[in-house]
Amino acid sequence: MKSTLTSPTSGERDGEISAVPFFDQSETFRRIWPEIRSNCIRVLDDGKFSHGTAVADLERALERYTGARHAVGVNSGTDALVLLLRAAGLRPGEEVIVPAYTFAASATAVVHAGGVPVFADIEEHGYGIDPDSVAAAVTDRTRMVMPVHLFDRLADLRGVHRVARTHGLTVVEDSAEAVGMRAGGAHAGLSGAGGVLSFFPAKTLGAVGDAGALLTDDDAVAETARMLRHHGRSGRTLAAFPGISNPTVVTGGNSKMDDLQAAVLLAKLDRLDTDIERRAVLSRRYDDRLRGLPGVRSVPGDLPVRPGENRVVYVHLIEVDDRDGLAARLADAGIGTEVYYPRPLHLQPCFAHLGYRAGDLPRAEAACRSALALPLYADLSESAVDRVCDEIARHLTGGSR
Q1: Residue 168's closest CA among 196, 139, 129?
Q2: Local mean pLDDT, 10-residue blocks, the chain (401 residues)
């Protein structure tokens, strides 16, 4: 543990740039270790390690930060989505429209909640779900639509809600990546029945393991989610399902958050806005260095941000013609990258029974062929960003190392 807490800024060793990992938060932990240690000691002294005081404190802190009426701490962003879908009223066999270009959990959560995912394409300029594609996907079995906020900006919530009102659909937001993102002053996740946050370590607000939260302004959704995360219990007994005329017993599961994760998140939440600004500085540096390079088809700073919205960079994603060749070149140079996402959801084998074919959702398919995520985190140095950009430029212009 000692070496981790005393390591210098990621990407630098003794003034020289060495390997650049895709993600590293060792400097953050070195800086805020006194606060983390103090929070963790309180948990250990309290003796309640799951669903305890630290979790309750984090929930209140998240409510203050996001403006949500309710924040419900759970064990992962994925379980937060499952609980949100169930608490918002999804019934077995009903359809939920989700984008084809997103992490698998957006769709698998629908399955685990008893629903059927129906896939829509993404917008032409950006990675959010396309409202026109949503409208075309609606059937008489559609109950909900799930916009996903990806990478550094919100999906077109205004367009999604327009379609939802027309067809009587409930909107649930996969805002797992969207902590700090707002539209018209409202935090991501609060435009419909609710949203979620993921605290996976690499997220903008990351724990040291899996953790998540459900955000909602709906009292009944919050009450139901709280019971579902704890085996359907209200206090120490199974509880009646709120909001249903003929109450039934809730069959929940074990989705509670660990208090040690909450203790870490409480320390990191205090500097979240500082980390967000740091990420923005680094992302702008990438934009400036990579804009105009041959073979780079998109840089995040050139994508539109709708009026009244802000940009919070979780992932710095570029689109390049030779994505796989560039990723291999960077890996050979000791630079980490990630492919978001290697295959669109409608073409995943687990959803083959739904009958989609290649070419059905062309913009999602094109993004999967060209999108590459570069290292971006608060501990990254400007020198490391420059090294990544230099390596990209050499590869794309045919230069030698």
Answers
A1: 139
A2: 37 64 92 90 83 90 97 95 95 96 96 96 94 97 97 94 97 97 94 96 93 96 90 59 46 86 94 95 94 87 86 94 94 95 95 96 96 95 95 84 44
Q: Which residues, including other chains, have CB under 8 Å from residue 25's CB and lie 6 or more apart?
A: 201, 206, 377, 378, 379
Amino acid letter for position 172: V
Distances (CA, A) of 200 to 118, 137, 295, 297: 26, 31, 32, 29
DSSP 351: G
CA distance 341 to 162: 28
DSSP state string for 45-88: HHT--BSSHHHHHHHHHHHHHH--SEEEEES-HHHHHHHHHHHT
Decide whether 2-25+271-397 matches 34-268 in CATH topology. Answer: no
Active site residues: 203
Q: What is the pLDDT of residue 303?
A: 84
Buried b (16+ CB within 10 A) or exposed e, 252-265: beebbbbbbbbbbb
When the candidates are 1.10.760.10, 3.90.1150.10, 3.30.70.980, 3.40.50.300, the CATH number that belongs to 2-25+271-397 is 3.90.1150.10
Angle at 298 between CA 293 and CA 304, to 5 degrees: 135
pLDDT for the residue numbered 300? 84
- Measuring CA to CA, how many Å separate 142 from each of 20, 91, 94, 97, 249? 45, 11, 6, 7, 25
- Distance between CA 183 and CA 306 in Å, rounded? 9
Say if domain 34-268 classifies as CATH 3.30.450.90. Answer: no
Give the number of other Cβ atoms within 10 Å of residue 133's Cβ. Answer: 20
State residue 16's pLDDT score. Answer: 59
> What is the pTM assigned to this prediction?
0.90
Predicted pLDDT at 298:
79
Main-chain dihedrals φ then ψ at residue 95, nearest 5 degrees: -95, 145
Structure tokens at 331: 């890996």
b/e map 267-302, b = 16+ CB within 10 Å = bbbebbeebbebbbebbebbeebbeebebbebbbbe
Is the backbone peptide bond immediately before 341 cis, with ω within 30 degrees of 0? yes
What's the pLDDT at 52? 81
